[in-house]
Amino acid sequence: MTTTRHPALVRLDALIGRWTLRPKVEGLGPAWAEFAWQDGGAFLRQDSDAGPMPATAPPAWRDNAPFPTRAVFGLDDATGEFTMLYADGRGVHRVYRMTFDGAVLTIWRDAPGFCQRYTGTLSADGSVIDGRWERSPDGVTWTLDFEIVHTRAETG
Q1: How far is CA 58 from CA 15, 64, 133, in A?
Q2: Between vectors from CA 80 to CA 78 and to CA 82, what angle results, nearest 5°?
């Protein structure tokens, strides 16, 4: 493997570190995520977790909390697009596509019956990502799933 990282991978350095996650959902507490390079910078890994789901959490969140989660990001150097392999504590496994231009992070999945997309905007100082997840049964009609704010807790 080469020791020089592709320029598209270098852009992901903005994500490295530990983040506090605050879903904008009444009754939920914070979670955390940590981004780190693996395999000499060939892949980016994201781990996230949360404490026990609070009794104040909406029933849908208590019944479907995904924690812990893990994602591994890799690059297609021909297209500049990333792929995200995702797995969580519920036993869910998904493949997403992703782009990141240094300011806007976009993640999406087009799957029969359950499409998803995320858009997150990194603040100018790199300390906050303001994001939202949306879902669609058909890839045409989208509804807000939830909004979420990532606040940098520490850098990598």
Answers
A1: 29, 10, 17
A2: 110
Kindly compute the dihedral angle of the four CA atoms of residues 40, 155, 101, 38, in this order, to the nearest 10 degrees: 20
Q: What is the mean pLDDT of residues 104-118?
A: 97
Whole-number Å distance between alpha carbons of 55 and 51: 12
Residue 56, pLDDT above cutoff 90: yes
- For residue 2, pLDDT over 80 is answered with no
User: Amino acid identity of 78?
Assistant: A
**Quick one: what percent of the chain has pLDDT higher than 90?**
82
Q: What is the CA radius of gyration of the chain?
A: 16
DSSP assigned state of 8: H
Whether the Cβ atoms of residue 143 and residue 135 lie closer than 8 Å to each other: yes
The vertex-104 CA angle with 129 and 86, nearest 5°, equals 75
pTM over 0.85: yes
β-partners of residue 115 are: 136
